[in-house]
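step: validate -> pass
step: tokenize input -> pass
step: predict -> running
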Amino acid sequence: MKNTYAARLQVLAFVIIIVTASATNIRAQTYTDLYNLGSNSGDPLDPAWVGLFAQGRDGNLYSTTTDGGVNTVGTVFRLSPSGTMTPWSFDSTGTDAFYPYSGLTLGTDGNFYGTSYAGGSAGAGTVFKVTPSGIITTLHSFNGCSEGSNVYAPPIEGLDGNFYGVASDGGCEVFGTVYKITPSGTLTVIYTFPGTSGLSYPQAIALGTDGNFYGTTLGATGGYGGVFKITPQGKLTVLHTFTDFGQGPKGMMIQANDGNFYGTTSHGGVNGVGAIYKMTPAGTLTVIYSFDTAGLGDEPYAGLIQATDGKFYGAASGYPFGHLFQITSTGTYTHLVSFTNVAGLFPGSTPQVALFQNTNGTLYGDTYGGGAGLAGVLYSLGMNLGPFVRFVGPLFEGKVGKNIEILGQGFTGTSKVSFHGAAATFKVVSDTYLTAVVPAAAITGSVIVTTPGRTLTSNKIFRVTPAILSFNPSSGSVGTPVTITGTSFTGATVVTFGGVKATTFSVDSNTQITATVPAGAKTGKIQVTTPGGTAISATTFTVS
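step: predict -> pass
step: emit ->
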């Protein structure tokens, strides 16, 4: 057994040399050990899954650990891009939150939101809010029964301004829940997993561009976990049940710029040690890569991120100390880093948290163990990617007139903000945060910020949602031309009358469409669909 282990290490060392040389030829990469956790009293310790990073308005990164801090029950910490780390401790006394696995979500109010696995009035976990200065407030305590328990992932902000999340288990024949919580802390369970059929033990959810949430579960009837879609109103649809080709989807899915969802399974795949999958919004799932035991990564607990080069980056926690990798949407896999536990070039171990790309272009992450203190490391991975701007939370879409929050750097002295070429009014709040109002001429596309130093492009497309303001006439028979007035009509693909598609229509301008009432049209609302979404009229068109 010892000889086999030694032989695998020799092979791994050889592979690392080859892959590192290959990776250098593909794109220069720079790994930096920013901070060894456990170096100082009260440090965060052992950052574990889910542990998601969030970028604040100040340009720093924020996350949580389940261990460490003054009271050894977990921390929130702030990490500057240069590596300065500031922790704030949780308290296990009274009804306070503690053991926060979640990581954090930045809300549009500038505060961060997370969950704790334990603590609260029933000891079943909490939802909490933390300010950028580290003031932690418990918003809600789970009752451990009908509301669920074992809360791992952070809540995420929906298009309605409320936060949504999952509890992974519960008592009283509850096998997990999906909840909605207001920023002030009023919680409503919108779905309960029964466990007797279908899916159970939800792990995390992500917001889709359609306004619905997409999530994974560890349990499924006849399978090894699954994927679901749920509306903000609580209507759940099972999209996929995993079999041997994917087991244990613990990492949060992401929706990529191609509209598909990407994620990982910690086990399963061809070799039984994990896989990476792609799934359409309708639920067609394809495994694009199966991990193996060749020393280039296995057992990915963390999910993926899509960086500004269009490629995906991830962390695998398996043999011997964990790895970082890059993969394309078609499954081309590139090994980047093999951690070495304590000594060596990459002194970390067992990365369980998804990487995060700061708007400076650099990737950041942490490991559960390894490093000088054997309690994990905070690191950066530079892939020679330039600075960019990102939207806060769900502000990747909006109607004309909506105020959008934008994160970046070097904003002082900004001269222009444009939505796909349409100039917007804007306000520079700080060097790393500004707001802009969606202009009347805006159409779906990139947002560009022109600063004194450079031009910054958004990492995601901004979807300008159309709006119907009026239509004339208000009634008519089949064949009647109807003039529809509104905003953001450019690129319209579908016009319907009572749900029936108009076979003839013209987009006269960004603010006007002329459509002919189609055969079979029914009395009802008029709808216009563009690349930015669907607008529904406030009043009814009457088919005479």
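step: describe -> Residues 138 and 499 are 45 Å apart (CA to CA).
step: cleanup -> pass
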